Amino acid sequence: MKNLRSFFSARETPFYYYDLELLDATLMALSSANRYGYHVHYALKANNNTPILERIKKAGLGVDCVSGNEVKIGLEHGFKSSNIVLAGVGKTDKEIGYAIDQNIFSFNVESIQELEVIDEIAGKKGKKANVSIRINPAIEAGTHHYITTGAKGNKFGISGEQLLESLDLLKSLSNVHFIGLHYHIGSQITDLNRFKNLCERVNHLQKELQAAGFSLPHLNVGGGLGIDYENPQEHPIPDFEAYFRVFHEHLKLLPDQEVHFELGRSIVGQCGTLVTRALYLKESDHSNFLILDAGMTDLMRPALYQASHKIVSLSEAQNTRQYDVVGPICESSDAFGKSITLPETKRGDILMICSAGAYGETMKNSYNARDLAPAYYSE
Ligand SMILES: Cc1ncc(COP(=O)(O)O)c(C=O)c1O
Ligand SMILES: N[C@@H](CCCC[NH3+])C(=O)O
């Protein structure tokens, strides 16, 4: 911590700091837990910084993208097009055309109309596009409702029934190759039973598809494994062993069927920290405010999902106090936590907002004409 304190103190705040050794250790743990030959695609939306992507590529992962630009970033960082999947409910014709030109591994198709558009665009190019159909299994992920994606009423994918009703159409489209099913039920899922429920839904639909004469070579079960935001120091690496075991034990695979995952947060979440300084302290009748120079423009998750990130103070004070920790943005939702116990803090003290590696920088913005926080790395 001593070295970090001087590294942090010498720099203008706020900024992101990444522990690349922790990222490497996380990638090692992921790879040793994957004893089943699963294909893991990194969800690039979680963090697309070059040093991070370089390590992920070196570890042999593919990428999961949600826009043409993300496909481009993946390719520019050396990921093979045969290891790239593209999801998204609103793919534009331009993005579809680009991904077809790049020969990506598969489109994760989110509506019947999109399927027809991909078929048409591929036909014009004289190509055949691989497609997996994204299924909304209508199960609860037990996470904040803004980050469930496979529950009733979510915009993602189509129902299993809709797929079964569309099989004749699928057979009739000559420019798409129906290779698999795709699922992703949500993010920051800590109850592994939710994934067991997913496996049961997958098994059920696979049985119906087989009865209809479809044996698909690929199954993509998405990502969503959560991290420990409360105790990041105690649990810096998620339990990938237990996670993969759920799928190994509960998925009923067809002979030679390949399984794909799309993990984001669990790979990069814990290696990133938002480093900030105390700007002002202000007591009112109701609150004791600690006003930071980092805010919701740097890390949006607390304002958007009432998410809580552990705050660590580098103050050396012995006594503690409770603070309402807020940012400088002109929004009352710009707060990192209420009644947080911290060492007594004074203007200029450095604080770390932990577990900010995933959906931190990729969601940062310049509202209030703010500067974008830069990134530094442990190497
Ligand atoms: C389609 C898709 N795949 C994968 C992910 C990655 O999720 P996570 O970062 O929770 O692993 C997301 C984000 O929720 C997603 O929307
Ligand atoms: N952005 C969300 C996760 C959603 C990912 C995309 N479906 C978060 O910060 O937790």
Question: Summarize this, please?
Answer:
The protein has twelve helices and 16 strands. With 379 residues, the chain is α/β, with parallel strands linked by helices. It has two domains: 121 residues, Lyase, Ornithine Decarboxylase, Chain A, domain 1, CATH 2.40.37.10; 250 residues, Alanine racemase (TIM Barrel), CATH 3.20.20.
What small molecules does this complex bind?
pyridoxal-5'-phosphate, lysine
Poorly predicted runs of 5 or more residues = none
Tell me the CATH superfamily of the largest domain. Alanine racemase
Question: Class of the largest domain, according to the CATH hierarchy?
Answer: Alpha Beta
Helical stretch count? 12
Under the CATH scheme, which architecture of the largest domain would be assigned?
Answer: Alpha-Beta Barrel
Strand content is 15-25%
Largest β sheet strand count, sense and barrel closure = 8 strands, mixed
State the separation between the terminal residues, measured CA to CA: 16 Å
Averaging pLDDT over every residue, what do you get?
Answer: 97
The percent range for helix content is 25-40%
Structure classification: alpha/beta
How many distinct beta strands? 16
> How does the overall form come out from the CA principal axes?
elongated
Q: Would you list the SSEs in sequence order as H and E? A: HEHEHEHEHEHEHHEHEHEHEEHEEEEE
CATH fold group of the largest domain: TIM Barrel
Provide the number of structural domains.
Answer: 2
User: Taking Cα atoms only, what radius of gyration do you get, to the nearest Å?
Assistant: 22 Å
